[in-house]
């Protein structure tokens, strides 16, 4: 036991003094999430504001119809109405960016409205521009005009407006804000936790096995009076810890980011903070613990096999995709935590984390996830220990 | 004492290694060491001489318990390297020319780490540290990161790491390869000191000057087998050429 502690202590000291590991373990998860969230939110917000405030160039063909609508558009300071463009060239004009949108009122519009029929207005726009804001802003004006026409018809027919609304739906959403946010944004959290857990474990695993082989310190260590399993266990514990630390730091990063983003509705901010309360964080970390053990054993096995730090890096880096894939599947709609998905590594962590955050996790399924992860971690550690005993592996290329 | 009895070490050969060895190599296994026997006694320096790839490092790795013999037995200080590996490692100090150090630790931390692995108590470690750090002049840079030290300083730290636990048996695998004259001399001095302290010293080299300077007993290994095994005096007496180097080349070519 004391030898294990000695090895663990030394490996941990050595690891946290490595700038690259420290960056990947602490700085990257702590800063990347806030920077990404803050920059993206601010970028999106400023682009939307720009799109909302932009004076739209609207080509209008009304042929003397819909005078109220024409008046509303022409008098609106958010629109610059352009007349005299032939109706059949509207599409081309928008694609050439000569105008932002076009409104073409049918020649028989007024006549149709007068006989209580439906008049046709064609709206041309490009949905891929400016968050589809052009359509929304024009639809608001046309919608207001339509409401006015409907109101006029009710008056003319002496009818109550309620006649066309026989059912009034009064909505009562019983899902808490925590649950709603948990089921939507919650999907992103396991994505970050699993990735950071893997990335935090990656560099120490490479350094403590392939790096040691390359530097020639592994050979010396093997001549010390400790068993190979004790050596492996010391390294393994450090890799597990760095993976977990990295994931934990990313949680701090998320909380920091949420607090930094201004004008988040207070009830939403409270919900996000509630999502990441101590109980949830502890529960999520308890899931990430066996996952981190699996990552550590797997990464160390690869690293022990590699001849050099560089070879280990090129072997391990593509595995990131293998890790991301199950997490992404967990983000698909309809994929939920069930008896089968609870057995699939990484996917189960992703789904269970989502449920934990939403506060809807079932104890039985959660236990199944733990059992599956602990079994996997145990098996991979056993395999790694066997691998570390093999002369062909340890002295490959040495 | 080291007693090696009819030791063979066989490695399986990968497809890539087969390609590298050329078409004349047939089969899937190779004997790196074949039926080798010898004894290293306390207070004497046993030199293992051989060209690159002769099997020196494989032999020394088996003695240090890193590799297991395919057949035969090795006893170090009375303990079997396969059955009592931990006991063997407790009594052995191992240094190679390629020995690496932990660049992010200080010499103090590195030596303490190994002392802890060897299970040394604080008092013994303190005394031994004073003695060795003084002998090798490590005190002045004991608190600096190893990565910032010169290669000579690093080699001194390696030497300190090798003998901190006062081992009965010391194994040096080409310890002076790739070292400058001054640092090589420090190692030679340490090897002599180990002999004076009645330790069993096993030393592998391909530098002929070191052979005549240090050897009490000598074995020449070529393609995994001994082509000479005796005292250095016996080697000198049977020499048919003028220098150790010429005699070594003659024996290797004749084998």
Question: What does this 3D model show about the protein?
Answer:
The complex is a heterodimer of chains A (about 400) and B (about 260). A four-stranded mixed beta sheet of chain A has the order 2-1-3-4. Chain A contains 17 helices and four strands. Chain A folds into two domains: about 1-40 and about 175-395, no CATH class; about 55-165, 3-Layer(aba) Sandwich (abc type-2 transporter like fold). Helix content of chain A is about 70%, strand content about 5%. Chain A is mainly alpha-helical. Chain A is elongated. Chain A has helices at about 1-15, 20-55, 65-75, 90-95, 110-115, 135-155, 175-185, 190-215, 215-220, 230-260, 265-275, 280-305, 310-315, 320-330, 345-360, 365-390, 390-395; strands at about 55-60, 80, 100-105, 120-125. The model of chain A has no long low-confidence stretch (mean pLDDT about 85). With about 260 residues, chain B is an alpha/beta fold. In chain B, about 40% of the residues lie in helices and about 25% in strands. Chain B is built from ten helices and ten strands. In chain B, the strands form two sheets. A six-stranded mixed beta sheet of chain B has the order 6-7-8-3-9-10, sandwiched between helices. Chain B has a four-stranded antiparallel beta sheet with strand order 2-1-4-5. In chain B, a hairpin with a 2-residue loop joins β9 and β10. Chain B is globular. The mean pLDDT of chain B is about 90. The chains are: A mainly alpha (about 400), B alpha/beta (about 260). At the A-B interface, α1, α9 and α17 of A face α3, β6 and α4 of B.
Which SSEs are present, and which pair or pack?
The complex is a heterodimer of chains A (398) and B (255).
Chain A: H1 2-16, H2 19-53, E1 56-61, H3 67-75, E2 79-82, H4 90-95, E3 101-105, H5 109-114, E4 121-125, H6 133-157, H7 177-184, H8 188-215, H9 217-221, H10 228-260, H11 266-275, H12 278-305, H13 309-316, H14 319-329, H15 347-358, H16 363-389, H17 391-394
Parallel strand pairs in A: 1-2, 1-3
Antiparallel strand pairs in A: 3-4
Chain B: E1 2-12, H1 15-21, E2 29-40, E3 45-49, H2 56-63, E4 71-76, E5 79-80, H3 85-90, E6 92-96, H4 107-117, H5 122-136, H6 151-163, E7 169-173, H7 181-196, E8 200-205, H8 208-214, E9 217-222, E10 225-231, H9 232-237, H10 244-254
Parallel strand pairs in B: 3-8, 3-9, 6-7, 7-8
Antiparallel strand pairs in B: 1-2, 1-4, 4-5, 9-10
